[in-house]
Amino acid sequence: VWDPGDPGAAPVELGRHDRGVMAVAALPDGRVAGGGADGRVLVWDPGDPGAAPVELGRHHGGVMAVAALPDGRVAGGGADGRVLVWDPGDPGAAPVELGRHDDGVMAVAALPDGRIVTGGWDRRVLAWDPGAAQRGPVELGRHHGRVTAMAALPDGRVAGGGADGRV
Questions:
Q1: Which pLDDT tens digit goes with each residue over 41-65?
Q2: For residues 158, 26, 39 and 36, what is the CA-based torsion angle, rounded to 10 degrees?
Q3: How confident is the model at residue 78 (pLDDT cuts 50, 70, 90)?
Q4: pLDDT, tens only, 95-130
Q5: Nearest by Cα to 130 from 101, 89, 92, 96
Q6: Continuous segment of H or E residues that includes residue 22
Q7: Contact partners, residue 81, CB within 8 Å, separation at least 6
Q8: Which of 138-158 are b and which e, b meaning 16 or more Cβ less than 10 Å from the residue's Cβ?
Q9: Residue 82: left if φ>0, alpha if ψ -120 to 50, beta else—which one?
Q10: SS3 69
Q11: Do 52 and 40 meet the contact criterion of CB atoms below 8 Å apart?
């Protein structure tokens, strides 16, 4: 963790994954979620650096993207194509599986209304409603290449970037 107000200070290390970290997200309560190549989704408390993280769960393969929902839940997308949602308040509970992309999920963003938007190797941009997981996703569109980044705009629209160089 770096402090932009003190640019010369050394960063504070919260902890580590067993392999590379692929994604991080700030939770509304100030904790930090990280997704790693080890397949785990971990949550750290910056107020207690060095403390053991809470493991929310795992993907089969690496976790490529994580996002914090407004209610504090954590959405993750993995190399296995699954879109999972965990509740950090119940770290032992199984995740809610919203569904799958045809291939790996590389980008996840949380909309202000709690919906989740994902993009992946299959070039699709999908919107998911965790409150109605049984309905499945709505396809918003496709990129000409892999979708590698997603961002939720305050007005509820979504920006995405892809391997094709387009935003």
A1: 999 999 998 899 999 998 888 999 9
A2: 100
A3: very high
A4: 999 999 999 999 999 999 999 999 999 999 999 999
A5: 96
A6: strand 21-26
A7: 100, 101, 102, 103, 104, 105, 120, 122
A8: eeeeebeebbbbbebeeeeeb
A9: beta
A10: coil
A11: no
Q: How would you write 88-104 as a 3-class SS string? A: CCCCCCCCEEEEECCCC
φ, ψ at 81 (rounded to 5°): 85, -10
Q: Is the pLDDT of residue 92 over 90?
A: no
Strands 54-58 and 105-110: unpaired
Q: Helix H segments across the chain?
A: none
Q: Which residue has the tokens 């993207």?
A: 65
Can you give the pTM of this predicted structure? 0.92
In the chain, the amino acid numbered 45 is D
pLDDT in tens, 7-37: 999 999 999 989 999 999 999 999 999 999 9
Q: At 96, which amino acid appears?
A: V
Are 160 and 106 within 8 A, CB to CB? no
Predicted confidence (pLDDT) at residue 133 exceeds the cutoff of 80: no
